[in-house]
Amino acid sequence: MSNVIPFKKRTAALGPAMDIDIITAVDAAIRDLRDIARECDEHVREQAEECRRMLERALSATVREL
């Protein structure tokens, strides 16, 4: 069974310093997932790796379309 982590609702809009484009966000998420996978048990590692591969495919497809 997976654990769902509830995120706090955003109360204020992101300011200009927090703007990020989707390609940069996905690239950062891929790197973070790679780091997370190194530190987790086998089940969590598999989930992180699966998510990372999905994001890599989506990013690759998006970049090819540009």
Overview of the molecule:
It is built from two helices and no strands. Helix content is 64%, strand content 0%. The chain has one domain. With 66 residues, the protein is mainly alpha-helical.
Outline:
With 66 residues, the chain is mainly alpha-helical. It has helices at residues 22-39, 42-65.
Task: Note the topology.
Blueprint: H1 22-39, H2 42-65
* Structural class by sheet pairing and helices: mainly alpha
Order of helices and strands: HH
Let me know the average pLDDT: 82
**Separation of the first and last Cα atoms:** 38 Å
Q: Uncertain spans, ≥5 residues at pLDDT below 50?
A: none
- Domains (count): 1
The number of strands is 0
Q: Main sheet?
A: none
Bin the helical content. 55-70%
- Secondary structure tally, helices: 2
- Gyration radius (Cα, Å) is 14 Å
Shape: globular
Strand content: under 5%
Record keyword descriptors for this entry:
66 residues, 0% strand, mainly alpha, single chain
